[in-house]
Amino acid sequence: MKTSDFYYDLPPELIAQTPVEPRDSARMLVYHRDSGKTEDRIFRDLPEYLRPGDVMVINETRVIPARLLGVKHSTGVPVEVLLLKRLDRDHWETLVKPGRRLKAGAEVTFGDGKLRCTIGETTSAGGRVVHFTYDGVFEALLDKLGQMPLPPYIHEKLKDPERYQTVYAKQEGSAAAPTAGLHFTDEVLNAVRQKGVDIVPVLLHVGLGTFRPVKEVDVDRHIMHEEFYMVTEKAAERINRARKSGGRIVCIGTTSVRTLETVADDQGIVHPGSGTTKIFIKPGVPFKATDVLLTNFHLPESTLLMLVSALIGREEALRVYKEAVDKRYRFFSFGDCTLFV
Known about the structure:
CATH class of the largest domain: Alpha Beta
CATH architecture of the largest domain: 3-Layer(aba) Sandwich
Radius of gyration: 20 Å
Distance between the termini: 26 Å
CATH topology of the largest domain: QueA-like
Oligomer: single chain
Strand content: 25-35%
Order of helices and strands: EEEEEEEEEEHEHEEHEHEEHHE
């Protein structure tokens, strides 16, 4: 497979710059896997497609204000540091701009010196390890000095940072939001429960590797970035019980899919555990634990579009995306969604 096999043409004006209000008013393109037919619905209609006994899996990660703007201490040149993964108390894996002008040992200051970091070695993924020094509590400084790490294709300023968090976000650690979950409101969650569906949280801290462009010509040569996941014993038991009773596993977002497919065995049994995953779901990789998927529309030639293609086939995925373009759906993080049922 070539990366170019997953290209589609997207008019720039269809890239959503702001979230819709209210959250649950986004459009939802429903794709029926048995027939290939589609429907145009609104997200708040989601409970209509769920059945009593299903289990809906959500990712309860919370985005940290991971974008830090500072200056190189010796020259005053502006520097951007994007936090990707905490390695220990004061060491982080990051992306740094301008990376080539910041050699190991360079010092960067933020907030008039309230927070400082020393640039370290380059990682295998092209990032940098940095060491922070500060007085006080790091998390409090980050809340004060950091910004929400919106994707580069979003140019509008986000008025309310909570609109880049799901309503069920709990555990801080993500460098990007699990965007399919942004559509949920408490009212929709209650409607799901009233339908007899169990809502089960898992955790995957989203790293930018999920969204990084595939630079390899050959898809099989692409290596995913590691992301931390956790599935508790209680979550695994609830998921397995639902499947054994004939319920479907409904994954909210590709992060929930990647978490479950990491810990599921060949019989579809989900095992508890935590660690890092580099799972790359592409055409030819079977789904072991996912029956229904709700997800947003993804970038051309991205690993997430490849995941959708693994679920319904590459040609079908591109056909659905062309239909979405023709119908003027809104794309990417703040855009509309698709339900593959």
